[in-house]
From TrEMBL:
A Pfam family annotated for this UniProt entry: Formyl_trans_N
Gene that encodes it: purN
Positions with a binding annotation for N(1)-(5-phospho-beta-D-ribosyl)glycinamide: G11, S12, N13
A GO MF term: phosphoribosylglycinamide formyltransferase activity
Catalytic activity of the protein: N(1)-(5-phospho-beta-D-ribosyl)glycinamide + (6R)-10-formyltetrahydrofolate = N(2)-formyl-N(1)-(5-phospho-beta-D-ribosyl)glycinamide + (6S)-5,6,7,8-tetrahydrofolate + H(+)
E.C. number(s) listed in UniProt: 2.1.2.2
InterPro entries, alphabetized: Formyl_transf_N, Formyl_transf_N_sf, GART, GART_AS
Keyword Transferase in annotation: yes
NCBIfam families associated with the record: PurN
Name of the protein this chain belongs to: Phosphoribosylglycinamide formyltransferase
Pathway: Purine metabolism; IMP biosynthesis via de novo pathway; N(2)-formyl-N(1)-(5-phospho-D-ribosyl)glycinamide from N(1)-(5-phospho-D-ribosyl)glycinamide (10-formyl THF route): step 1/1
Originating species: Bacterioplanoides pacificum
């Protein structure tokens, strides 16, 4: 199977997945890493791993629609089986989401359905939550609203701040995202209606 990974920033989740591919843990190929920010540090992480990179700078497009069309063309050049959003910080148009229906995953730093959108760590603190975490989910038209695939839960300690939470969540991301990708490329993970299924069972 072929995977295309979309990033905007540090690319540490992309690197975790790429390393799992290299170790033979995930039986797939990362055909390309596509990034919307030319200065994103994740681009170098991809190059260090001999992965092809493409930059599509959203600032060069007049509209979200134009950007998404260019992005779709670039993705489709690689004919991927799976599109992995790994810190890709752009809201996608409905056409884009529909095109990769059932074959696009995202990672979101909260225990979805809690805290869709931004500032998830601070919001968990402000709410006094005792637990926080991260979710891999299929992407549907609802932002951060697609069916959950896998979550990692971390405790919130006295004295935690948004940065300490973010760091502990981030290290869990690198554990669960490769697992979800592995399930998908092994044909175990599918989306049916608004459910994620593992081996045919609703997650
Ligand atoms: C992560 O916090 C992820 O949950 C969010 O974007 C960040 C990506 O980090 N969606 P990285 O670029 O993979 O290091």
């Amino acid at each position: 199977p072929r995977i295309v990974v979309l990033i905007s920033g540090s690319g540490s989740n992309m690197a975790a997945i790429a390393d799992a591919v290299k170790q033979g843990d995930i039986d797939a190929e990362i055909s390309a890493v596509i990034c919307n920010r030319p200065e994103a540090p994740g681009l170098q992480k991809a190059k260090d791993r001999d992965i092809e990179t493409q930059v599509i700078d959203h600032k060069e497009f007049a509209s979200r629609e134009d950007f998404d069309v260019a992005l779709m063309r670039c993705i489709d050049d690689y004919q991927p089986d799976l599109v992995v959003l790994a810190g890709f910080m752009r809201i996608l148009t409905a056409d884009f989401v529909i095109r990769y229906h059932g074959r696009m995953l995202n990672i979101h730093p909260s225990l979805l359905p809690k805290y869709q959108g931004l500032n998830t760590h601070q919001r968990a603190l402000d709410a006094g939550d005792e637990q926080h975490g991260v979710t891999v989910h299929f992407v549907t038209e609802e932002l951060d609203g697609g069916p959950n695939v896998i979550q990692a839960v971390i405790p919130v300690y006295d004295g935690d701040d948004a940065i300490s939470l973010q760091q502990r969540v981030h290290s869990q991301e690198h554990v669960i995202y490769p697992i979800a990708v592995k399930w998908f490329v092994n044909g175990r993970l599918t989306m049916k209606g608004n459910d994620a299924l593992l081996d045919g069972n609703i997650l």
